[in-house]
Write a structure and sequence with these properties.
360 residues; mainly alpha; globular
Length: 360
């Protein structure tokens, strides 16, 4: 099976990561910047929609070409992509108390102490729900989204293994209803909406363009290609506006309805950039696309780097309330994270990714 690479996706991944990154930056010197940096979880919402598209497309394309889905190979590819760096970070989490002590640093003391039974089994998100808190060690606090991703791979892989593609629209509709109802219930209970059921509609919304691409192929892409580029640009402005306006609405809207609405808008964005021949694109040679290839590492390493330099700046008595130090902090942590992620991708992740060719 020949793998199709989609242009612009890596750049979009980077934008989603950057939204998370600036959310975690402690830029105390710029109170007005809070409007831009808040709601970093929206970046994660886009990751879920994009995963919904890619996983659904991969499965449907394989079934279209071979008549079946090889579950063993499907799960093997997911394991090779997610598990190596995930478990490297888990090892770091449990070694970090010794590293902190050896470096003479101080732990923040905020959050709960991790337990291997949760972190090793991709169930840390449920621990966070039960504790209504976050782990006290980076990067475990952001790894709840990887738990959800892993649960999605299992559920979606099994679903699409058994059902015909013509029933997928029914699954998508049911998933959208499930997501809204689950968020309503979690909101009523005061729980964090960080499990698969409260996010299943985001993955399902991402599955819509994948189903359309497989079901209608060239006709679908030709229709999108003919859509005027100015309409597409206007839609991007509308989407950016929604990203910053929706969080200003009431808490019930933000928690229950905003994820689905933004998920639908992200899904339409994916549709608009799908055609291979498309003026509305960010090329693979663009620096943002290159950085986007390392997004997995960027997402996992950035909180470690931020916390490390918080200690460093504190020791040097460089206050982040000072604009010069705040800007320096943002630039340093960004490029250090970028460098570490590049090295991680080239030296650690890539050897595992090369093994995926044996499971197509």
């Amino acid at each position: 099976m020949q793998k199709r690479n989609f242009h612009t996706f890596d750049a979009l991944r980077f934008f989603a990561y950057f939204k998370v990154f600036i959310f975690h930056l402690p830029l105390l010197a710029f109170p007005a910047f809070t409007f831009i940096k808040d709601n970093g979880g929206i970046g994660v919402l886009f990751f879920f929609v994009l995963s919904g598209f890619l996983i659904t497309y991969i499965i449907l394309e394989e079934k279209e070409q071979t008549g079946k889905l090889d579950l063993k190979h499907f799960f093997a590819r997911r394991i090779l992509r997610i598990w190596p760096l995930y478990y490297l970070m888990i090892a770091f989490v449990y070694l970090s108390p010794f590293l902190i002590s050896a470096l003479g640093m101080e732990a923040s003391g905020a959050g709960y102490e991790p337990r291997p039974v949760y972190s090793l089994t991709f169930t840390e998100n449920y621990r966070m729900i039960m504790e209504n808190d976050h782990p006290d060690t980076s990067p475990l606090g952001v790894m709840w989204s990887l738990c959800i991703e892993e649960h999605f791979y299992i559920v979606w892989g099994l679903l699409l293994f058994f059902i015909n593609k013509r029933y997928l629209p029914h699954v998508i509709i049911l998933s959208c209803i499930t997501g809204i109802i689950s968020r309503m219930y979690f909101f009523h209970m005061g729980w964090k909406t960080i499990d698969l059921f409260t996010n299943i509609d985001l993955f399902a919304l991402g599955a819509i363009p994948a189903w359309l691409l497989i079901a209608y192929g060239g006709r679908f892409e030709e229709w999108i290609r003919k859509t005027g580029i100015n309409y597409k640009r206007f839609y991007v402005l509308l989407l950016i506006t929604a990203v910053y306006v929706f969080p200003l609405c009431g808490v019930y809207f933000r928690e229950v309805f905003m994820p689905g609405l933004l998920g639908a808008m992200f899904s339409l964005l994916i549709i608009l950039i799908l055609p291979a021949e498309n003026k509305f694109r960010i090329g693979r040679k663009n620096v943002l696309s290159r950085w986007g290839v390392w997004t997995y590492g960027l997402y996992l390493y950035h909180t470690i780097v931020i916390n490390l330099f918080l200690q460093f700046f504190a020791r040097l008595e460089w206050p982040l309330s000072d604009p010069m130090y705040a800007i320096s902090f943002a630039i340093i942590t960004f490029f250090v994270t970028l460098t570490i992620s590049y090295l991680s991708y080239q030296l650690f992740e890539k050897p595992f990714l090369r093994l995926k060719k044996y499971f197509y």
